Give the backbone structure.
Amino acid sequence: MSLINFIDIKSLGDSRGDLISLEENGNIPFSIKRVYYIFNTEQGVARGFHAHKALRQVAFCIAGQCEFILDDGKNRQTVLLDSPTKGILIEHMQWREMHNFSEGCILMVIASEHYDESDYIRDYEQFLREVNQ
Ligand code: TYD
């Protein structure tokens, strides 16, 4: 599986503007249990810095942009997330970091599970041990 998997959503736009529809087990490749969004991020703040044992997510910048780093323990890649039509699929056991949030950025995340702190790995050395074992 490649590290960066974009999910391109076709806009149902017309002369009035754009419309995006997300459906579980359709253009979102899992059952949706939770949606959250990150906004009003202060300049210079970076977020994330964790992996999940089981959770799968798709993230979109529905306004503005940010840089997304994904790391599977062997490779690390940085991509720009800058469109409401372009999601990034974050698989379980992928370390993620978000940097360089633009002013007005709204990062919306679609998640496969309810919030569960015990699913997080927040220590990078622990992540490397678990992903490489
Ligand atoms: P965190 O996952 O650390 O955010 P980020 O990865 O963007 O840096 O979450 C920040 C806080 O919000 C933390 O105390 C956990 C809490 N939280 C919830 O209660 N529910 C949620 O769905 C999420 C994503 C976070």
